[in-house]
Each structure stands twice: as C-alpha cells, then as structure tokens.
C-alpha cells in the first residue's frame, strides 16, 4: 500500500483497509449486495485519492502549507496508486520536468500512458516529449514484492493423491518448472486445470496434451511433439513464463492469457468476460493464494495496458 511514503500513518492505514475491502467485495461478483458494497468502496477509493491529490497540489505549490515538492510527489504517487488520473498526470509532469524529483522520462512516460489510458486530455500530448511506456515504473507505484517460490509449500502433498501415471507427470511438471523460473505451485495449478495431467487429451479446440497447447502456441514455442509429455510441458511453461513477463508478474492476468490468449486480456483490459476464463482464473488463484509472481523483464516488452492492469489487480478486480 506504500506506507513507506511520507503520507502519514492514518492515510496508509485507510488505504490498506480500502484495498482489503475492495478485494473482499470482489469475491461475490454476482451478488447484488456485494455489488452495492463494491460501488460504495469505489466511491471511497475515488474520494480518498482525490483528497491526497489535493494535499499534493498544496505541497507542490506552497498553498497554505510549506512548499515541499518531494512530499507532493509522494502524495501524488499514493493518489495515483488509488486510481486518480490527475495525480498520474501531475507526477508524470514532475518527473518530466525534474521538479522535486530527478528527471526521468521513462517514469514520466509510464505515468502519462496511465493517465492517457484513463482519458486525461493532455497526457497523450505529453507522451510526445517523454516517449511511450517502456516498462519503467517508479518504486512508489510498485506493489509489495512477492518474489518467493512458495516456501513451505510441498508439491508432494498434492501429488500423493494422484494415480501412478499422473504422479509421474506431476513430478515432471514440478521438476521442469525450476528451469523456467516458475513456481512449481503455479506450474502444477495450470497443468491440473488444463488437462488434469492427461498427456493424450485433445480439446474441442484442438488443444493438446498436458498443458493443452493449441497448434499456434505449440509452433510459437517450438513444440515439435505435442503429445510427448516433456516437450508439451516445456512448451506450456515457456508460454507461461512469457505471459508472466508480459503481464509483469500478475498471476490472474497470466492465467487469463493462458486460457483466452493475451490479446483478449489486452482487449478487455483485464480478465475477459468469458465464463470459462473467469472460472479458470478463480481456480488458479484459489490454488495459488497470491496474485504476484517473479518474472524476467528481458523476455518480452510489457503489455501496452500493463499500468492499468496493475491498478485493476491491486484493487481486487479482474478476476
């Protein structure tokens, strides 16, 4: 929630409570009282973000308080994390002009891209001077890191109940996951959800094998023998690694991309409104019990809507 920023303990605690409330409300998406609660939480988010942006303006210009550009930047950043478009633009402007912060056109480009995505009228024009979003995100906008590969979680506890053949495939998934820097827990979640560890299954859409690779994906990741378990699993893990990089470690978006394709996630700016994909993502998240995963940014450029997807994810949406 960014409580390391100079916003004040009460604002941090309120923001953390709001994020928790938004995440809780998202569980019952089809329940009318829950929908009303989500709407109310959204209003509170917006009001608090607007308040922070107002205080930031005062500190930036010295209006009734001491002029403190660094404090203004911290407040703008916290407001931006809560979805305030004016704060995204204002912080981008500070980075673009080196006002109270070291000039950083890459950070400014990210913030202007975020603001433009949400309809800020001047943001697109500013991007002409700073450049487009290239994956650089200010530290204050980063979610709390979750880089662990599930310490204390045992794959054996999940493998033990499987049949002998599926045990063998599950262990292959877990063993190969390390080569692709993917949590064995996530790799196993995908394999179980895709095929229940059946190396011979073919779906109505011609998705093949353990990781249910369609022909285009198999070709894209150099899978020559899609019904060979190791070749198939390697292809699926390579695609999953790519998706994690593309969606900057967001497990929900990566899972949605695996099921429906990354272009569908980009088009809908979140988990697509397909019943199958939504159920798929819910199952993966229930298995994982977290939303973030380490990723290698060198693998691919980020999704063009990655900044907006991060906001959706942190506010408990998109799943």
From TrEMBL:
GO cellular component: membrane
Domain Transglycosylase SLT: 177-270
SMART domains named in the record: SEL1
Signal peptide: 1-28
One BP term from GO: peptidoglycan metabolic process
Example of a GO MF term: peptidoglycan lytic transglycosylase activity
Database matches in InterPro entries: Lysozyme-like_dom_sf, Sel1-like, TPR-like_helical_dom_sf, Transglyc_AS, Transglycosylase_SLT_dom_1
Protein's UniProt keywords contain Signal: yes
CDD domains reported for this sequence: LT-like
Record keywords, A-Z: Signal
Cited Pfam families: Sel1, SLT
PROSITE patterns linked to this entry: TRANSGLYCOSYLASE
Gene3D superfamilies: 1.10.530.10, Tetratricopeptide repeat domain
PANTHER family xref list: MEMBRANE-BOUND LYTIC MUREIN TRANSGLYCOSYLASE C, SOLUBLE LYTIC MUREIN TRANSGLYCOSYLASE-RELATED
Similarity comment: Belongs to the transglycosylase Slt family.
Protein name stated in the entry: Transglycosylase SLT domain-containing protein
The organism of origin for this protein: Aromatoleum tolulyticum
């Amino acid at each position: 929630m960014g409580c390391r920023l100079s916003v004040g303990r009460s604002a941090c605690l309120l923001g953390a409570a709001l994020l928790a409330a938004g995440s809780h409300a998202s569980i019952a998406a089809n329940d009318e009282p829950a929908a009303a609660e989500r709407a109310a939480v959204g209003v509170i988010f917006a009001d608090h973000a607007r308040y922070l942006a107002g205080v930031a303006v005062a500190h930036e210009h010295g209006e009734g308080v001491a002029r403190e550009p660094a404090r203004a930047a911290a407040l703008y950043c916290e407001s931006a994390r809560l979805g305030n478009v004016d704060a995204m633009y204002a912080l981008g402007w500070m980075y673009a002009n080196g006002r109270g912060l070291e000039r950083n056109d890459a950070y400014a480009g990210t913030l202007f891209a975020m603001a433009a995505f949400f309809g800020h009228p001047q943001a697109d024009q500013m991007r002409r001077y700073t450049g487009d979003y290239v994956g650089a995100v200010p530290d204050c906008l980063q979610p709390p890191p979750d880089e662990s590969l599930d310490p204390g979680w045992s794959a054996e506890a999940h493998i033990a109940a499987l049949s002998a053949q599926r045990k063998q495939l599950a262990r292959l998934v877990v063993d190969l996951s390390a080569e692709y820097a993917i949590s064995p827990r996530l790799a196993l979640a995908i394999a179980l959800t895709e095929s229940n560890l059946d190396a011979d299954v073919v779906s109505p859409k011609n998705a093949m094998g353990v990781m249910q690779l369609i022909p285009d994906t198999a070709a894209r990741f150099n899978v020559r023998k899609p019904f060979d378990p190791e070749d198939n699993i390697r292809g699926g893990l390579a695609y999953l690694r790519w998706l994690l990089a593309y969606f900057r470690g967001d497990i929900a978006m990566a899972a949605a991309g695996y099921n429906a394709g990354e272009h569908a996630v980009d088009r809908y700016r979140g988990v697509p409104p397909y019943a199958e994909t939504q159920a798929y993502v819910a199952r993966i998240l229930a298995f994982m019990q977290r939303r973030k995963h380490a990723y290698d940014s060198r693998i691919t450029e980020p999704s063009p809507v990655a900044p907006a997807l991060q906001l959706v994810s942190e506010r408990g949406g998109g799943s």
